[in-house]
Amino acid sequence: MQNKRKIPLLFVILGLFLQLFTAIPAQAADDFTIKAEAAFAIDADSGKIFYDQNGSTPLAIASVTKMITTYLVLDAIKQQRTTWDAQVPISDYAAENSTNPELSNVPLSKDQTYSVKDLYDAAIIESGNAAAIALAEFLAGSEHAFVDQMRQLVASWGITDAILVNASGLNNYFLGDRRYPDTGEEDENMMSARSVAIVARHLIKDHPEYLETSKVAKTQFAPGTDSAVEMENSNSMLPGLANAKEGVDGLKTGTTEKAGACFAGTMERDGRRVITVVLNASNEVRDKNARFVETSNLMDYCFNNWQLKTVDLANQPMTGETELPVVDGKQEEVQLQNDGVVQVWARNDMDLNQLTTETQMNDTLLNDGKLIAPVRKGEKLGVTTVKLNQDDLGYVDPNEAPSASVVTSSSVEKANIFLLIWRKILDFFN
C-alpha cells in the first residue's frame, strides 16, 4: 500500500520539476544580464541587435581601438598605398613606448626597420602599442594625422559618439607632450559598445582577412631576425589558450585603468557569426578572466535564444496603398501585393504572428502617384519592412531591417484608342 501511495506523489514531484526546468530558457532570456558596465551583441551579417546593455553610453575602449588602426592598415594595403613587405622606420617616440614595462608591447629599436606585416601582427596579437604608433606614423606621416583619418573613418560609418585621441588606445598620460593637440593629459579613446560593434562589423565585412591574424593564438614577432620574440594572443578564448571556446576567432582586447577590461569578440557556429562587445567587465580585479567569461555567456545567449525564422509576407495585409490608378490602361487600377518571404531574427519567446509591416513606395517610379500603361506584373514599386512587435532592439543600421518588394499583382495593357475616347466623353459629361 505504501508503494502505491508513493508513485502518484513521485509523478507530481517529477511534473513540478519538469515545469521548472522547461521554464528556464524563457526566464533566462528575460533576466539575462552581463556583469560589465556595457555589453552589446549583433549578428555580423545583418546587423540585427541581439543584446543591448547600456550600449549607447560612450566609455573608454583602450586597445579595442586597434581595430580601427588595423582597418586603416588593411585599407592602405587594398588601395596599394603600401605593401606587407614595406619597411617601417621606428621613431624615438615609438622606441621609447615599446620598452615601457607598464605597457603591452614587443620591443622596437630605432636602429632597425620592421615590415608592415610584422607590426600589424604585433598590434593585433600582442596588442603592441608601439607597433600601432609606428604604423600610424608610417601611413599618415604622424600619429596626429592618422588620428584625423580614424575620426573620418568612423564618421563615415555614422558613428557620432567617438572620441579618438591616439592610434593605440593608451591613456594620454603615456604620450606626454606627443598627445593630440587640445586633448587632456589623461584623455582616452572613448566610444559606445554599440559603436564598437559597428566598427567590428565593418572590419570583418570589409576586411575578412583580419580574422586570419586575430585567430592566431601564438606566433613569433619578426621571425628570422634579431628582433624575433614570442607572442601570445591577449584573447585567451582562442584554441589552446586558457579560456578557449570553439568558434571564437577574434577580435580585440583592451585594458587600461580607466577602461577596465574590455573585449570585442566574434564567434562562428553553424554558418552564423555573432559579434559581442563587453566594456569594463565586473570582478576583473578578482578574476582576470572576467571579460572572457562574460563574453562566453553573451555568445551562448545569442546562439541559444535567437533564431532566423521565415515570414511569408504574401499572406500579410498591405499597409498604406493597396492599389494604384493606371493612366490609359485597360483596367484603371492595379492591385499591389508584398512579394515573397523574408527572414526575420526572433528570440525563442517571441510570437511571429505579432508583427508590424510598413510599406514605403518609391515615388520616383510613379507619375504623381499613378502608373502609366502598360504595366508589367511583378513590377517593383516599393518595399515593405517587417518588425516583430516584441522586438525593441532593431538593427544597427535600420535600413537593413528585413523587407520584401511591393509589386503589382497583375499586368495592365494599354487601352485602345476607342476606349480612351469613350472615357474622355464620360469624363466630359461627369
UniProtKB/TrEMBL annotation:
Residues 306-414 form the Peptidase S11 D-Ala-D-Ala carboxypeptidase A C-terminal domain. It comes from the Bacteria. It is an enzyme of class 3 (hydrolase). Pfam families: Peptidase_S11. Pathway: Cell wall biogenesis; peptidoglycan biosynthesis. GO terms for molecular function: serine-type D-Ala-D-Ala carboxypeptidase activity. This is serine-type D-Ala-D-Ala carboxypeptidase. It comes from Enterococcus pallens ATCC BAA-351. The lineage of its organism: Bacteria, Bacillati, Bacillota, Bacilli, Lactobacillales.
